[in-house]
């Protein structure tokens, strides 16, 4: 196993890759130049088995070890950027107006490229490593992770275990966090249209006011969490969008509202879909109105398997020591479409500290290049841990 100092020589080159990607971000399923850049680097490392165009712009590349027969493990990095106007003020800020790498996928891609270069040179492992460069982690369903799994990458490349990694702002550089079981929440999204009867705002008694009804529905949905679910289980229901009339003196015919549902308990997804409909419909009908309801299952719970979690912990500890690996990290309610890969194969998802930076999805965010050798080293040590010859 290698300490982080073994990978500092790759940091300068990986920083150049990362900043190039940051300057040239591309959104979901449109990562054409990003994919071309990644494929070119992989070929330059002497990797011969590179397949492109998976899930539109995704890539899987295989590195065969020289240690004999063995399994194939998958290492995944996401490549897409977000529709955000950058405000980081960095010299390598986005050149693509309205699009930026606000979640560190540029760093994730650079770290896996760094590991690819090292592994392609050394090849001191048995079996094979499948490098998965995934498009479109950020959008609503269907995401890039879902599409790659649906297109059969696990069977096609013989992947037996799969691993992912994400940076975490606020956690010190060189620190890792992971836990067994649920580590990130599921994401479902819903739309409700409240259909009333509009009119003049001066005469509300002649209307069925969908604005007031929508307000009652929003409050009512919160009781589903506080009064109808076990307080020891996790459930979040948030209404995030609301559209009504565009004038001061108009009560509209309809109000459109949307929101998201997050949980670590898969069974609560069924509960939420059923009870949101019942609650919203009951409130609306009590006022003489009705609703239209749509519920979209987007991303499942990101669930770390015990064996994969233990392998990830061992690899991280071999890089930075036990004291720098929090193996009882508190799960996040954020969602991650790597969940689809962990449904298809056992494995684990780990977090790497990004230092004191702006949070992900913030216009001021930037991936911390000091984290690069830690991510590269983690991937290499993970391969040594699972496939060591």
TrEMBL record:
Q: Which cofactor does it need?
A: Mn(2+)
One GO biological process this protein is involved in is:
diaminopimelate biosynthetic process
Q: Which PANTHER family match?
A: METALLOPEPTIDASE, PUTATIVE (AFU_ORTHOLOGUE AFUA_6G09600)-RELATED, PEPTIDASE M20 FAMILY MEMBER
Listed name of the protein: Amidohydrolase
**Pfam families assigned to the protein according to its UniProt record, in alphabetical order:** M20_dimer, Peptidase_M20
Residue ranges annotated for the Peptidase M20 dimerisation domain, each copy included: 190-270
Note describing how the cofactor binds: The Mn(2+) ion enhances activity.
Organism of provenance: Allomesorhizobium camelthorni
Stored NCBIfam families: amidohydrolases
């Amino acid at each position: 196993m290698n300490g982080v100092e073994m990978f500092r020589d790759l940091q300068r080159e990986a920083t150049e890759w990362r900043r190039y990607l940051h300057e040239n971000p591309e959104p979901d399923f449109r990562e054409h130049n990003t994919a071309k850049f990644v494929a070119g680097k992989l070929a330059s490392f002497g990797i011969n088995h590179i397949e492109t165009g998976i899930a539109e712009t995704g890539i899987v590349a295989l590195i065969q070890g020289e240690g004999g027969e063995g399994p194939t493990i998958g290492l995944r990095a996401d490549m897409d950027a977000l529709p955000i106007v950058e405000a980081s003020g960095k010299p390598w800020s986005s050149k693509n107006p309205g699009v930026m790498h606000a979640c560190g996928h540029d760093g994730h891609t650079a770290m896996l490229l760094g590991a690819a270069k090292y592994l392609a040179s050394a090849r001191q492992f048995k079996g094979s490593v499948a490098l998965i460069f995934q498009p479109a982690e950020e959008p609503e369903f269907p995401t890039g992770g879902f599409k790659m799994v649906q297109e059969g990458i696990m069977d096609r490349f013989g992947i037996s275990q799969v691993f992912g990694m994400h940076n975490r702002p606020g956690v010190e550089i060189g620190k890792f966090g992971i836990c067994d079981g649920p580590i990130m929440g599921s994401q479902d999204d819903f739309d409700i249209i409240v259909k009333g009867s509009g009119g003049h705002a001066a005469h509300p008694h002649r209307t069925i006011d969908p604005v007031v009804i929508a307000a009652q529905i929003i409050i009512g949905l919160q009781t589903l969490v506080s009064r109808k679910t076990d307080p020891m289980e996790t459930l979040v229901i948030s209404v995030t969008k609301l559209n009504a009339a565009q004038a001061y003196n108009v009560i509209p015919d309809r109000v459109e509202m949307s929101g998201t549902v997050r949980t670590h308990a898969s069974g609560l997804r069924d509960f939420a879909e059923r009870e949101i409909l019942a609650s919203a419909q009951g409130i609306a009908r009590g006022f003489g109105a009705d609703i239209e309801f749509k519920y979209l299952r987007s991303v499942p719970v990101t669930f770390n398997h015990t064996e994969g979690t233990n392998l990830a912990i061992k690899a991280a500890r071999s890089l930075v020591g036990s004291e720098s690996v929090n193996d009882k990290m508190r799960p996040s309610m954020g969602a991650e479409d790597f969940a689809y890969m962990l449904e298809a194969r056992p494995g684990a998802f780990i977090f790497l500290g990004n230092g004191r930076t702006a949070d992900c999805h913030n216009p001021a965010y930037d991936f911390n290049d000091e984290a690069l050798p830690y991510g590269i080293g983690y991937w290499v040590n993970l391969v040594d841990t699972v496939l060591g010859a």
